[in-house]
Design brief:
With 315 residues, the protein is α/β, with parallel strands linked by helices. It is 25% helix and 29% strand. The chain contains eight helices and 16 strands. The strands form four sheets. It has a nine-stranded mixed beta sheet, sandwiched between helices. A three-stranded antiparallel beta sheet has the order 12-16-15. The longest helix has 15 residues. It is globular. One of its GO terms (cellular component) is cytosol.
Length: 315
């Protein structure tokens, strides 16, 4: 059974508690699947897993926060040290907003106040083609909810920037295949953002014109939540590969797909007969000596172009 931990870096707002039960439940709604165990640690209140508990988890999620990722609060520094440990162990880490920023700091990057000020509302980001995302069928542009005034300013050379926007230079990054940062909030919906905007307005923390523009941004559409869910789950759990064929029974050719950037999963040309013979595209087994079992495959799309979505489960 897979096990994951969420590092909760902010207190639950009254709206989120009433509407969703808390931010932990919001993240579970986006990431959790049947048969998994999820634990929450309120790191902003000093609640951290013990050193002997770290290896119990397959992956970790770091949430947003009202605190500064470039600050030196006691719990921030403690979280920073823990993220460095997780990075050294090549543990899966997904950072969102503040989590994105402090993860970059743990990797050797720099964060600080955004030179362009607050970024609030719906925004379209540009995702760059990269081998790191080759296993995820995602468009070149994605809509996401933004709510931040800090940003990642610099990353070390071994970390790849994989998305930018007109407002923010580093919207997403990946370090190898084990660490991913997302500046936006794929877990948010319009209601959560509007409640946060109203709270800032009540405290005179933002101008009314900015608040109005942020709320009006939803008139152009909603965030690509299903795509974000697929991407975040696929990254965190390493369970998604996409094979594209022109039509049922077509020879695909020789190519390798990788998990953990090093382990050959399968030679597609060797298994082309499986695609031909499995007319219903339900499932198949792989008999070669690889560290995976339970392959599930489903068919998406009709006509000349068909996507074969394959799920892998570690042995």
């Amino acid at each position: 059974m897979k096990r994951f931990a969420v590092f909760l870096c902010a207190e639950d707002s009254e709206y989120v508690k009433k509407k969703h039960g808390g931010y932990f439940e919001v993240f579970l709604g986006m990431l959790a699947e049947e048969g998994e165990t999820w634990d929450g640690y309120r790191v902003a209140n000093g609640e951290f897993p013990g050193e002997d508990e770290i290896d119990l988890y397959d992956g970790f999620v770091v949430t947003g926060s009202c605190n500064d990722a470039h600050g030196n609060d006691v719990w921030v520094l403690r979280l920073l040290a823990l993220l460095k440990t997780l990075h050294s162990k090549k543990k899966k880490i997904l950072g969102v907003c503040f989590g994105h920023q402090i993860l970059s700091r743990a990797l050797g990057g720099k964060t600080g106040r955004a030179t362009t000020g607050w970024d609030i509302g719906m925004r379209t980001i540009s995702v760059y083609p990269t081998e790191l995302l080759s296993g995820f069928e995602i468009p070149s542009q994605l809509s996401v909810i933004e709510f931040h005034r800090d940003e990642v300013k610099e990353l070390p050379p071994y970390v790849d920037v994989i998305a930018r926007s007109e407002k923010t230079g580093i919207e997403m990054f990946m370090c190898g295949d084990h660490a991913m940062g997302i500046q936006g909030h794929p877990e948010y919906d319009e209601g959560i953002l509007v409640s946060l905007i109203d709270r800032l307005q009540a405290r005179y923390a933002i101008e009314d014109s900015l608040a109005d523009a942020a709320k009006a941004s939803f008139q152009k559409g909603q965030p690509d939540k299903e795509t974000w869910k697929k991407l975040c789950r696929g990254f965190l759990k390493g369970t998604l590969l996409v094979f594209e064929i022109l039509q049922k029974g077509t020879e695909i050719g020789t190519s390798f797909f990788y998990i953990d950037n090093s382990t050959p999963v399968m030679n597609v040309s060797e298994r082309s007969s499986v695609f031909r013979n499995n007319q219903n595209f339900h499932s198949f087994s792989h008999e070669a000596s690889i560290p995976y079992q339970k392959w599930d495959m489903r068919r998406e799309g009709e006509g000349e172009k068909t996507l074969m979505v394959v799920g892998l489960e570690k042995a």
